[in-house]
Amino acid sequence: MNQYDLNLILNPNISAEQVQTEKDYIENAVRNAGAEISNLDDLGNRRLAYQVGKDREGYYLMYTIKASGNPETAIASSLRLRDNVRRVLVVKDRPEWKTKKA
């Protein structure tokens, strides 16, 4: 199984209930693509480097998923249809990209 990073930026103005609804939908989309979630980092609202739509902030969710095959298109295409999702990025995790801390 390959490991992937799934990074999402959500609408910064959504409530805690809506965030939970989005998390549930994301979990279902990942499972439907034949993958499993191994880690979730909920970073909350952060300032964006540039404006996305009318927003200068975004609600960040970073998942680590394990999947066989190529789940990128199946997961990303279903998540991009959501109204509260601003950006989706699925990247294959490679150990050589990790930096070593001194």
Report on the structure:
This protein is α+β, with helices and mostly antiparallel strands and 102 residues long. The chain has a single domain, classed as Ribosomal protein S6/Translation elongation factor EF1B (Alpha-Beta Plaits), CATH 3.30.70.60. It contains two helices and four strands. It has helices at residues 16-32, 72-79; strands at 2-10, 35-52, 55-67, 85-92. The protein has a four-stranded antiparallel beta sheet, covered by helices on one side. It is globular and about 35 Å long. The chain starts with a strand and ends in a 10-residue tail after the last strand. The mean pLDDT is 89. It comes from Deinococcus radiodurans (strain ATCC 13939 / DSM 20539 / JCM 16871 / CCUG 27074 / LMG 4051 / NBRC 15346 / NCIMB 9279 / VKM B-1422 / R1). Belongs to the bacterial ribosomal protein bS6 family. This is Small ribosomal subunit protein bS6. Binds together with bS18 to 16S ribosomal RNA.
Q: In the CATH hierarchy, what is the architecture at level 2?
A: 2-Layer Sandwich
Shape: globular
* Beta-strand content: over 45%
Query: Strand order of the main beta sheet, please?
Result: 2-3-1-4
**Uncertain spans:** none
Query: CATH fold name, please?
Result: Alpha-Beta Plaits
Q: What is the residue-mean pLDDT, rounded to a whole number? A: 89
Total number of helices: 2
Number of strands: 4
Rounded Rg: 14 Å
Per CATH, the superfamily is Ribosomal protein S6/Translation elongation factor EF1B
- The structure class reads alpha+beta
What is the string of helix and strand elements? EHEEHE
Oligomer: single chain
